[in-house]
Design a protein that fits this description.
The strands form two sheets. Strands 1-4-5-6 form a four-stranded mixed β-sheet. It has helices at residues 3-13, 18-25, 29-36, 70-76, 104-116, 128-151, 154-169, 175-193, 199-209, 226-232; strands at 58-60, 66-69, 80-83, 210-216, 219-224, 240-242. A hairpin with a 2-residue loop joins strand 4 (210-216) and strand 5 (219-224). The protein has 245 residues and is an alpha+beta fold.
Length: 245
Amino acid sequence: MTVGELVRRAREARGWTQTDLARETGLRQTYISQVEGGEIALPRTGNGANVNLLTGLMRCACGGTVVYSSVRQRATGERYLECRNFSKARPRGRDCPIRGKRTAPYYEELVAAEFLALPELIEEPEDSTVAEARVRIAERRRIIEDLYIESRDRATYDTRRAALDAEEAALPVPMPLGAALIAAIAQGQALWRAGELTTREANSILRSVFSRVIISGPSVEIVPVPLLARLLASRRGGARVAGTG
């Protein structure tokens, strides 16, 4: 699985076009297209040694960002998580629910188990009425983007775009996007069980299906990306809590 394929799957899992991703990241759409097509490689930011399974996914129930603690690892030889709110300068961190409670592998196993437990998903083709509604929304989206380019009225643009996003979110998951995510999950689960994924690849797969892992003591609340949440809606709720007291 190439980096370009991972980027494309993560983008499609969020229901974004290349234009949407370009807007969110500040990159050019042509650059994103070239990365996904394998024409150019993403710039390297390091040797990958600092990428752990849950890197970039974790938040603490107290509101802080959760990271892997290199200090505690050097001191104890064990991998622990650390909430960025926990410091004398941030009083809220004094009640941080994860401080020294469990080692990092404990939480990694909970999230990995949740990913591997994702059910086989089947997507039904959408009828012509839904397809037509999707086309009309896309046309209106182009219109408001053209108006924004002319007027630079960001507030009005954001309001209209949010309304269109809500209208589109109420529609069934579009067949191509849902099918891509379903295939990616099935392939990821197979490779994971076979032990054929590097930590970086496993992290990329988790980030394509889960938007947030909220840690609270021994439990984690796992929030799927919106597209997956909609696919799972008929089976269960949008967030899962794993772990025991």
